[in-house]
Every structure is written in C-alpha cells, then in structure tokens.
Amino acid sequence: MTTSHAVPPLDHRAFRELVESFYGLYAQVFLEDDQRDTAVSDTFDILWLRWNDALASPDTRKFAWNVLRTTVMARTPHVDGRPELGWAAFDTVALQSVIAAPDRVEQIAETLDLFKAMSSLPDHQLDVMVLRRLCGITPEDVSGLLGVPLATVRSDERHAVHFLESVICPPETEGNTA
C-alpha cells in the first residue's frame, strides 16, 4: 500500500509544463541528449516526491532549481572540481558560422578558453551565464527560473562578464610592447 498519489498533483504538473523546456536547455549545455532527458525527468520525479517541501520552502522556483542543478551536476564530468563545458563549445553559433578551416581552428581554441574560464565562475554566476549567453534566455525568465530578483541576475551577469573579460583579455601591462 502506498501513501503517495498515482500521478503528480496538478500544481506540480503545471510547474513542470512551465519550466521543463528551460530545464532541458540548461541540462543540454552539460550533458548529452540521453543524459539530459534522464536528468530533467529525474528532477521532476524528485520534485514530485518532495513537492510538499518545495511548496513549504520560501520560493518553490529556487527549491526546484537547486534540485535540477544538483541532478545535472551529479551527471556532469568535472575537471579540478569544476563542471566540464568543453564539449559544449563545439555547439556554439560562433563556431558554426566560421567556414574557413584555419579560422575554425582559431575559433575552437578561443571558445574552449572561454568555456574553461566560465566553468571557474561561482555557481550562481555560471548558471546565469549558461542560461543567458548559451541558452539565450531573457533576464526576466532567468529571474523566474532561479527564483531570484531580476537585479541579482543582472548583477551576476555583469560580474561574470567582467571576470571572463579579465581572464580571456587581460589588460596589457606597461612593459608589454607587443
């Protein structure tokens, strides 16, 4: 005999319908298709089992995002404790638009450097950059997905961009005569 419902409650199903495609986009950056689908499905299964906890939390969206992030990161390859984004670099618009082979090799190297630097961002900044820059999601939708104020999303993105620019394009020093 079971004490749970045979199907998720209506509010859980509605929530899933609202965010599932966004969750899939996020997971796709870190995982291959079959792993992505499993991670997203597992996220909603966990949420179903913990739905009362999610509803009792200060923000259901933030609770759900933490479940998704934990589920995706548990399946994501890591290098030096940071998520590996290298293979996702081959699926960028910049790379797909380059036609000449020498330009393509240079773009691959630049993109790999950028993705390596991105993986060293703090978790919340990484999530914002993945959602905003790699998935193309609006700041308002990112705010809703993460359950944080819009100002936080904009601040995280600004700080992440500043960090990435300092790593990828460090300022020249006075002694540099290149």
3D architecture notes:
By secondary structure, this protein is mostly helical. 69% of the residues lie in helices and 2% in strands. It has helices spanning 10-30, 33-49, 51-56, 60-75, 93-97, 101-119, 123-134, 139-146, 150-168; strands at residues 78-79, 82-83. The protein has a two-stranded antiparallel sheet. Helix 2 (33-49) crosses helix 4, helix 6 crosses helix 9 and helix 8 crosses helix 9 (150-168). The longest helix is centred in the first third of the chain and has 21 residues, at 10-30. The radius of gyration is 19 Å and the shape is globular. The model is unreliable at 92-98 (pLDDT under 50).
The gross shape turns out to be globular
Could you state the order of secondary-structure elements as H and E? HHHHEEHHHHH
Helix content: 55-70%
Strand content: under 5%
The structural class is mainly alpha
List low-pLDDT spans.
92-98
Number of strands: 2
Q: Could you write a compact summary of the structure shown?
A:
This protein is mainly alpha-helical. It is globular, with a radius of gyration of 19 Å.
Keywords, separated by commas or semicolons:
single chain, 178 residues, mainly alpha, 69% helix
Q: How does the SSE layout of this entry go?
A:
Blueprint: H1 10-30, H2 33-49, H3 51-56, H4 60-75, E1 78-79, E2 82-83, H5 93-97, H6 101-119, H7 123-134, H8 139-146, H9 150-168
Antiparallel strand pairs: 1-2
Helix pairs in contact: 1-2, 1-7, 2-4, 6-9, 7-9, 8-9
